[in-house]
Every structure is written in C-alpha cells, then in structure tokens.
Sequence to fold (345 residues):
Amino acid sequence: MTSTPVRRRIPKPLLRFGRVVLIVVVVWLLLRLLRGVDWSEVGYGLTHLAGWQIGVLLVAMVVRRFVVASPLALLVDGLRPVKAMVNDVAATAVAMIAPAPGDVMIRLAMLRSWGIGTTQAASGLTLSTLLFYVARLAAPALGFVVFWIAQTFYAPFAWSALVFGAGAAALLGGLLYALRAERTAAALGRLLGRLVQRVRRSSRGPDAWAHRFVTFQQHSAGIMRRRRGLVSLNLLALIVAEAGVLILSLAFVGVRMDRPVLLLLACSFLVIYPLTGLPLMGAGVLEATYVSFVSDHSAIETTTLMAGLIVCRVAVQFVPIVVGLLTILIWRRTTAAAGGITRTG
Fold:
C-alpha cells in the first residue's frame, strides 16, 4: 500500500525565515535589556525582601494558583478546588521537565485516581485549557480599554488589542461552534474510527468512535451551559490575579506606586500577556519587552523593573515547580497505597 505524501501548508523556506526573524528579535530585545541592568543591584533587591513581604507574596501565589485552577473545578463535577490546584501545579511541574503531552497525561491520571470519569476529565481539561487561551489572548484588549478610559488612547496598545483580540474571538467562536455541532462531532468520530480501524483491525469501528465524540460534545456543552457565568468571572479574576502578583513584586523591590505608574505597569503587562504562552512562560522575551516599554514611558529604572520581574517569576513559576514535584510524589505514594488508579466512565 502506497502512502500519500503530506503537503506542508506553510512553505519550508518561509518557516525558516520566520524562525530567523524571531531569533533576531529575541536577541535584540535581550541585548537591549542586559545593557541597562545593574545585576548587583538586582541581587541586592532580591535578597533584601522583608519577611512580611515574602509572606504576602506566598499568599498571593496561593490565591493566583487557586484562581488559575478554579475553571477545572467548575467544569468537572465532583472535583474540589483543592484537588484542582494539586492537579494544576503537578501539570506545571511536568510541563517544565517533560515533553508534551506529559502534563496532560499526569492530569488525566490524577483525575481518574480520584474517581473522575474519563469523559468528564477529558472534557474539563479541554474546556479549561481552551478558555484559558481565550483569556490570555483577550488580555491585551482589556489592558487597552482600561488605559484608554483612565488615561489616553495609545496606538501600540490598540494594535496589540486588535491582533490578539481577533485571535481570542476566533478561538471562542470555534469553541462555541464545537459545543453546538453534534453532527460534526459524529462525522469526525466516524472519520477517526475508520482511520484507526485501518491500522488496528480490533478497533470498535466508526460508529463506536462517533458515539464517543458525541458523548464528549454533549457533556462539554451541558457543563458549559450550567457554569458559563462563573467560568467567565473566573477568567476575568485570573487576569487580575496575574497582574496583581506582578504589581506586588514591583512594589516590594522599590517601585513607588501612584495612580499613573500603577496604570502603566498593569496595562503594559496585560498588553503583552500573550507572551506567557511561549515556552517557559516567555522567559527572557516577556521581561525584555516589558522592561523596554515601561522604562521608555516612565522614570522607573531598568534594574528595579528587572528585580521585580524576577521576584514575580520565582513566585508564579519556579516555586510551583518545586511544589508540583512534591505533590506528584505524594500522589503516587497515596495512589499506590490505595491500590492504584480508579478507572471510571
């Protein structure tokens, strides 16, 4: 049997050119950032946080993690918020040290071990992930609107809001269509069933796969109808919580917060928030972009901004990795002691 060659949608030379442009932009941003940073001052700012400031940041970190994990708890019946947090922080740790889809596999395994059905678990994870990306892409629009209302119209903010907002609208539109497209789900299930049956003759066949897809689609649509209001509020709270941790970090390293500065810091972060979708949450690229913009539009020193960004990244990224690895070890021991993973649904 001859196989049909797969055609590339994007020409290979264009992909290479895009990668080169991306590398050049990233290197330029990083060089611009590194030139203006006094790293001894950054180290001083990091090591001279007061005990109560560290305590406040830890509380803020827990609140942020609760808000980030809450959509999963809302979209999976019977899943408590604390377990949703455990699931989320474990996936964060795995995503940093293992290739995809390792984080998804650990999340599914955890949910099944807690008695959550496969359909419920897969539906909740899919919806929460897609909605998180909608919120991530919509954040620039929120930052632009707030800045425009409170201070002035700013064209770079407007362009960011337009580009990423269009992406958020397209993703949300596709999700809403999928939640209503029962026939499409059945057709996709039959198509996948045929493909699987060609490779694996013992497969249940197209009709069984169509039933799985329709069940998944109906469950997802039902849970979204019941929880859409709470999930929408939670996504807004997620964006606010992300900006809040950064503002706290900057304030604790010496940035004086008055209304114009607070507005600039928060809205600038929201406008570049989609950069957190890059590998390692945009490490390096996000800092360079944020510092470059804020330092050009305020009297805040680059060194102070960098110290605050490092404090923020430690709180939202590196501490959760350590906690996540510990939770995985504890979960594996408790699961083994309980006799393995419970498989339902």
